[in-house]
Amino acid sequence: MRGMGNMQGMMKQMQKMQKDMAKAQAEIEASEFVGTAGGGMVSIKVTGKREVLDVEIKEEVVDPEDIEMLQDLVLAAMNDALKQVDETTAQKMGRFTQGMNIPGL
User: Structural domain of residue 72, as residue ranges?
Assistant: First the structure.
């Protein structure tokens, strides 16, 4: 019967870890991230859920003769914002999976 106490302790630890993970995920989802490109000429704000909240494009960067450059700047700003979401998620959630070899995490 000695193993039952260990099992209960492990279950409590798992439940606490699950709560902590849910809290960390909620914090990430509620956070806002701003990606920029062109020295701040284009900025895009996204949530941790990867929802776009705002796109700002400075007037000086709008050149009707060079739409491709503006498209590249928007893409770069979006990728910058999403990279920040990924890095923050890896940092906050990684502490829960450290040392574990769990596929998909």
Answer: 2-96
